[in-house]
Amino acid sequence: MNRPPVPPHDDPEPTEETEAAPPLDVRARRTRDRLREAVLRLSAERPVEEVAVADLVREARVNRTTFYKHATSPAQVLEQVLYEELDRVRAVWITDVLAAELPVHEIWARASGVLLDHLERYDALYTAGLVGHRSAVLHRLLVEHFTVSVATLLARDPRAVPDGEGSVAWRVEAASRFMAHGEVGIAEAWLSLPAPRERRLFVSAATVLLPSWLAPGAP
After folding, report:
1. Are 7 and 24 in contact (CB under 8 A)?
2. How far apart are CA 112 and CA 128, in angstroms?
3. Residue pLDDT, tens place only, 138-165
4. CB of 33 within 8 A of CB of 84?
5. 60 Cβ partners below 8 Å, 6+ apart?
6. By the number of CB atoms within 10 A of the CB, which of 118, 153, 211, 219 ranks highest?
7. Is 146 in contact with 180 (CB distance < 8 Å)?
């Protein structure tokens, strides 16, 4: 899709803004929000690795200097947006597992519902990136987030670490990556279905395929 050029908007940022600095001021938040909205629009049209910095700054109406105060690439901006929501998905799942109040299939069904809300909210983006394996970057972002989710849970509840050969660290790494790739695989299979997609198909696959050993205390 061809877009008319938009003049860059000079949005000065405070020079002291670093990772250890206080929260972003109003101007910086506005710039960050413009970049995030822009990367979501562009990544819904084509895989994020095909979005150049020049495309993003033009779409967001900021200059390159301002952009590099917020991120090093469009993919990093996208990661920031998606990870904020995926962190909440992780929190729901880990809370349910550690509470051990629900049967395992209900824990997976509840977590799947929250994840589906996220996938549907950004349907065009995930369809453009994951259907047909078009975006290795988006695939990696999801796999890495899900890997950290499983590893975080296993660190909090060592009872769930699978038995087997090798150190605990090796078994956690292997189990976390195995689980992450499986969960992303379910998402890719579901997104490949013609719209409108039935949520029950995703939930059913997750509850049947994802293991019960991750929730050893569940009833």
Report:
1. no
2. 21
3. 999 999 999 999 999 999 999 999 999 9
4. no
5. 31, 34, 35, 37, 38, 39, 67
6. 153
7. yes
